[in-house]
Specification:
Blueprint: H1 3-22, H2 30-53, H3 56-59, H4 63-66, H5 69-78, H6 95-119, H7 125-128, H8 142-153, H9 160-180
Helix pairs in contact: 1-9, 2-5, 2-6, 2-9, 6-8, 6-9
Bound molecules: protoporphyrin IX containing FE.
């Protein structure tokens, strides 16, 4: 079994929970879409910064073209809302954990593509125009290239536990943010 297959098998239940949490946002509506972006920002800003402090560029040399913090920040500005306080992490990640977190962030683009099409059909022009994050385009062939590097790194079975732990960490952060900003709940700072 490749590390990608292991990650998919282990992460399936968490992905379903994340999907369900974000499924509660009515993305055509400006208030829900704004809350959705704030939730993603809270998770993404912290996780991307954490990856950078942990040396992700050593593992993914084209990281600068993959990061989406700026795109998401621009969307929030476009909608005139403040960026949320990102999750703060005390320590850095080891190599295996970096792969696990990066897998979740890169994998999230698959869902983003579907959501981008849906949000693009909003009757609210302000919503339609704030899609830099969901519509972010990575370098050509970024996903297969990522999977190749991931599987190559996963050739070292000693990294597997950390890779799985990184995946759990990233999904858990997204899940918590998705629930925190969910429509019908009072958003926390
Ligand atoms: C409403 C929100 C979401 C929808 C509709 C969605 C949808 C999808 C879809 C259609 C796939 C492809 C499944 C396949 O080809 O087998 C996928 C895979 C994936 N998604 Fe999501 N997703 C959502 C949110 C997220 C979020 C927030 C994250 C990360 C925080 C995430 C991480 C992943 C990962 C890691 C994969 C697996 C990639 C792989 O190895 O094939 N998804 N998602």
């Amino acid at each position: 079994m490749s590390i990608r297959e292991m990650l998919r098998a282990e992460g399936g239940a968490l992905h379903a929970q994340v999907d369900a949490a974000f499924g509660r946002y009515a993305l055509h509506s400006r208030s829900d879409y704004t809350a959705f972006l704030q939730a993603h920002a809270q998770a993404l800003f912290g996780l991307e910064a954490l990856l950078e402090r942990s040396g992700i560029e050593r593992l993914l040399p084209d990281w600068a073209e993959r990061r989406r913090t700026q795109a998401l920040g621009a969307d929030l500005q476009c909608l005139q809302v403040a960026a949320p306080q990102p999750e703060v992490f005390e320590r850095t990640l080891d190599e295996g954990e970096c792969w696990g977190v990066a897998y979740v962030l890169e994998g999230s683009r698959l869902g983003s593509r579907l959501l981008d099409r849906h949000v693009g059909e909003s009757p609210d022009e302000g919503v339609r125009e704030a899609r830099a994050y969901l519509g972010h385009v990575p370098p050509k062939g970024a996903w297969p290239a990522f999977l190749e590097r991931l599987d190559h790194a996963g050739g070292d079975a000693a990294l597997h536990p950390a890779m799985l732990a990184g995946q759990r960490l990233a999904f858990t952060i997204f899940l918590a943010a998705g629930r925190r900003y969910a429509p019908g709940t009072a958003p926390l700072p």
